[in-house]
Amino acid sequence: MTLEIGTSVIIPTFNRPQWAAELVTQLVAQRGYGGGLEVLLVNDNGDPAVFAMARAAVAGSNVQLRCFDTGYEGFGAALARNVGIA
């Protein structure tokens, strides 16, 4: 099965696993994003628990979650966002 992507959302984060997981949960609950939803979660080398929490949030949905880690701590949201765009 191929998921057609209609909307992509980039979430840059650093040491906010609860916040990021809640945001993913809220995105999964949204309706009206025609063509499918892709969430790109980019961690700025912070708490790796964010990925497991986000995966749990999309479980059972048709939302495509992609997880990335910048590998650099403290470069912030700008670098994380750019990684997501790339």
Termini gap: 25 Å
Q: Summarize the amount of helix as a percent range.
A: 25-40%
List segments where confidence is low: pLDDT < 50 over at least 5 consecutive residues. Answer: none
H/E series:
EHEHEH
How many helices in DSSP terms?
3
Notes on the protein architecture:
- The protein is of the alpha/beta class and about 90 residues long.
- A three-stranded parallel beta sheet has the order 1-2-3, with helices on both faces.
- The protein has three helices and three strands.
- It starts with 6 loop residues before the first strand and ends with a helix.
- About 40% of the residues lie in helices and about 25% in strands.
Tag the structure with descriptive keywords:
86 residues; 3 helices; three-stranded parallel beta sheet; 3 strands; 38% helix; alpha/beta; globular
Strand and helix map with partners:
Blueprint (H helix, E strand, L loop, with lengths): L6 E7 L3 H13 L7 E7 L5 H10 L5 E6 L6 H10 L1
Parallel strand pairs: 1-2, 2-3
Helix pairs in contact: 1-2
Question: Can you describe this structure in just a few lines?
Answer:
This protein has 86 residues and is an alpha/beta fold. The chain has helices at residues 17-29, 49-58, 76-85, and strands at residues 7-13, 37-43, 64-69.
